[in-house]
Amino acid sequence: MFKIERQAYIENELKKNKSVLISDLCQALDCSMETIRRDLKELEAAGKAQRIYGGAFLPEENDLGVPAKLRETFFPMEKRQMAEHALSFISKGDVIMLDASTTCLKLSQAILEAGLPITIITNSLRICYIFNEQPNAAPRIICLGGELHAKTNSFIGYKTTNEINEYIADKSFISCPAIDMTFGLTDNNLASAMVRKGMIDHSRKRFLIADHTKFSSNASVLIAGLSVVDTIITDKPLPPRWEAECINKKIHLEYL
């Protein structure tokens, strides 16, 4: 297949699905990963795609976040390990809030496997789905309604935040696209940020689960200041300046 044909195919897949995986394109087009990477680089240069680890996506004007389909390919082993570590902070009978991050999806799977008799409040369609497939699972699930955001497989909007206001959780577990030392937890989407802020505000203990790359990333929407977090669970030791900032803000750090 000629380059122009490959790139036309990729453009069509992006328009249709909003994101593409390099592995899927290699199989569909019967070519190497290097070839696909070159194609994506050229499409990005032409303003027709935004490359990311493992694939590419079409950014939206008011939401530069990476689609869930691509985010699930980032650090899957580390996310699983962080989820299992977070499990040790959850006790029988707890009421917890989980956001729609792929990290919390891993945590929900760990909870399911452990058979913990707890209550989970979430805006994640994926989390609700995995428990719906296990009708006899120990956890009780409360699904927050609202507007379905296909990019993140989650419910967002004022209906979602209004429902959060009806609950008080023992613990909330959230992740976010980026953490800024000056401003705190940040997001790419205002509505998603408001849901995460609501979960933080309506829980007695707040846990942030984030891989090490989140501490050097940028996002434009503020969720909350760093001081609202009680515990950070991450996969690698943070730089000394970050550790000092966490000590200053009385945030407990948990490494794998």
Structure characterization notes:
The protein is α/β, with parallel strands linked by helices and 256 residues long. It is built from 10 helices and 15 strands. The protein has helices at 3-17, 22-29, 33-45, 68-71, 76-87, 102-114, 125-132, 158-164, 190-201, 240-248; strands at 19-21, 50-52, 55-57, 95-98, 119-122, 140-143, 147-149, 154-156, 169-174, 178-180, 184-187, 203-209, 221-224, 231-234, 252-255. The strands form 4 sheets. A 7-stranded parallel beta sheet has the order 6-5-4-9-12-14-15, sandwiched between helices. Strands 1-3-2 form a 3-stranded antiparallel beta sheet. α5 (76-87) packs across α6 and α8 (158-164) packs parallel to α9 (190-201). The chain is globular. The model has no long low-confidence stretch (mean pLDDT 91). Pfam families: DeoRC, HTH_DeoR.
Broad structural category? alpha/beta
Q: Widest sheet: strand order?
A: 6-5-4-9-12-14-15
Nearest-integer average pLDDT: 91
From the N-terminal CA to the C-terminal CA, the straight-line distance is 46 Å
Query: What's the order of the H and E elements?
Result: HEHHEEHHEHEHEEEHEEEHEEEHE
Strand content bin: 15-25%
Radius of gyration, in Å, reads 19 Å
- Total helices: the number is 10
Largest sheet: 7 strands, parallel
Low-confidence stretches: none
The coarse silhouette is globular
Task: Provide the helix percentage.
Answer: 25-40%
Number of strands: 15
Pfam families: DeoRC (PF00455), HTH_DeoR (PF08220)
Domain HTH deoR-type: 3-58
GO molecular function: DNA binding; DNA-binding transcription factor activity
Protein name: Lactose phosphotransferase system repressor
